[in-house]
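Re: that backbone. Tokens:
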């Protein structure tokens, strides 16, 4: 039976989804992004090269793969066309390999400016958005005034663009935000021309369902479950459905066609931007995770906040998406730790709970269990029997606590640095 297998981040993003999609792609002909936009930064390392993808699905470096940008994605044509140029520059052809949904919404230059204006207006309560225009673009989608990729093929595209831009200009004036859009607009319109000429714009829901008859498809999530617009720590979230269900609406596939739900998590936690992070470390241990893990944003370069693994949040994400298997990333980052802690419950107002609270300003005290560190480099390990017992004990504890098997342990950024269990 052909299925849509879904890769999703179970934490606050940057779990290593790009690497995993690249590793899994040889098993699939089709990879499809279903939500988010250029707020995503998915890093792939292979053959001594490092590539960061924002909009193009992470299957692109595999020969003969088909990479679909689904209807649930928001697309900035400037970023997309620039990304394609960079991929071509390392000798990887993209012609015919990237298909863009007509129903994917476009990010306008004024969406980016609105993102900045709205963040500025929030002052100290800002979300810490990537400033790529994600929130404003999804706002227009839901409020039924958005511009879609399919519109670039219509004769009235210019009028539609002008009307939406005008609406944004009025909003920006209301906010009293100083801006000038001319230069960004010129670049954006040029990219629209390129996109029209070079990309295949399709009725993606038909194409995806046709391709699904021929073979299983890999759906690539962006962001993470704790940034989901419904289930994340609202309002400190992104504006799309990052959980497994998002793959159905973001591609037009039936829930019954979902196969494996592959949940990706780091052996610890990171978060970039504002919002609650119960296990965040402000000490030398946090600094060590940041250094060893090179925890700087792939999209914005901002330092990521670091902390211990949070099993309350992880179990919550697994529940919401029905993860059928777990992939643990960046085990090698903790090679030098004497002791490793894992949050198994929260203490809220003196009472222990295993539930993630509704209120984002709830003071949470994590309840930890401690494990002995393995104190050996693991990046050379390729099979389970190469791995230190302390690391395997850590993994078994996670399996026990979540009820889901850890099928894959990543021990380095490269495609080859993996242990399959
Ligand atoms: P994504 O957004 O989920 O695709 O993740 P990012 O690419 O934003 O961030 C993950 C970072 O960790 C990237 O720099 C990867 O190259 C790197 N990475 C992935 N897996 C591993 C691993 O097992 N070990 C180490 N040290 N780095 C990893
Ligand atoms: P990948 O796919 C980590 C965070 C931002 C901010 C919040 C809202 O690489 O895992 P937005 O620009 O979406 O309005 O920002 O969400 N955020 C991410 N954090 N990884 C990402 O993507 C993210 N995309 C958005 O930092 O806190
Ligand atoms: Mg990322």
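Recovered sequence:
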């Amino acid at each position: 039976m052909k299925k849509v297998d879904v890769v999703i981040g179970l934490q606050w993003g940057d779990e290593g989804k790009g690497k995993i999609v690249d590793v899994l792609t040889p098993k699939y002909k089709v990879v499809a992004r279903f939500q988010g936009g250029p707020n995503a930064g998915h890093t792939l390392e292979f053959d001594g090269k490092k590539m960061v993808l924002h909009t193009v699905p992470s299957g692109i470096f595999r020969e003969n793969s088909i990479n679909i940008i689904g209807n649930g994605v928001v697309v900035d044509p400037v970023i997309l066309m620039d990304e394609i140029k960079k991929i071509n520059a390392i000798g990887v052809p993209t012609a015919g390999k990237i298909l863009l949904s007509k129903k994917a919404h476009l990010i306008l230059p004024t969406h980016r400016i609105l993102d900045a204006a709205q963040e500025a207006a929030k002052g100290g309560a800002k979300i810490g958005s990537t400033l790529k225009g994600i929130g404003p673009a999804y706002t227009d989608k839901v409020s039924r005034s958005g511009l879609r990729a399919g519109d670039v093929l219509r004769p009235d595209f210019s009028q539609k663009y002008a009307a939406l831009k005008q609406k944004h200009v009025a909003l920006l004036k209301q906010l009293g935000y100083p801006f000038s859009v001319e230069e960004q607009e010129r670049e954006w319109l040029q990219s629209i021309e390129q996109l029209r000429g070079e990309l295949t714009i399709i009725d993606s829901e038909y194409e995806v369902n046709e391709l699904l008859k021929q073979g299983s498809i890999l759906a690539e999530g962006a962001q993470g479950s704790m940034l989901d617009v419904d289930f994340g720590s609202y309002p400190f979230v992104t504006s799309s459905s990052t959980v497994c269900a998002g793959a159905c609406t973001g591609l037009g596939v039936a829930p019954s066609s979902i196969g494996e739900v592959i949940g990706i998590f780091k052996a610890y936690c990171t978060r970039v931007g504002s919002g609650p992070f119960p296990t965040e470390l402000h000490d030398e241990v946090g600094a060590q995770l940041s250094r060893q893990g090179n925890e700087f944003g792939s999209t914005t370069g901002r330092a990521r906040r670091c902390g211990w693994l949070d099993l309350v949040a992880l179990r919550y994400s697994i529940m919401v998406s029905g993860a059928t298997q777990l992939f643990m990333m960046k085990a090698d980052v903790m090679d030098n730790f004497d002791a490793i802690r894992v949050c198994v419950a929260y203490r809220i107002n003196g009472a222990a709970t295993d539930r993630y609270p509704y209120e984002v300003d709830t003071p949470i005290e994590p309840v930890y269990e401690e494990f002995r560190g393995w104190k050996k480099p693991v990046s050379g390990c390729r099979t389970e029997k190469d791995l230190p017992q302390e690391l395997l004990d850590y993994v078994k504890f996670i399996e026990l606590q979540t009820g889901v098997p850890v099928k894959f342990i990543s021990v380095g950024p490269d495609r080859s640095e993996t242990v399959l269990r």
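The mean pLDDT is 97. The two ends are 24 Å apart (CA to CA).
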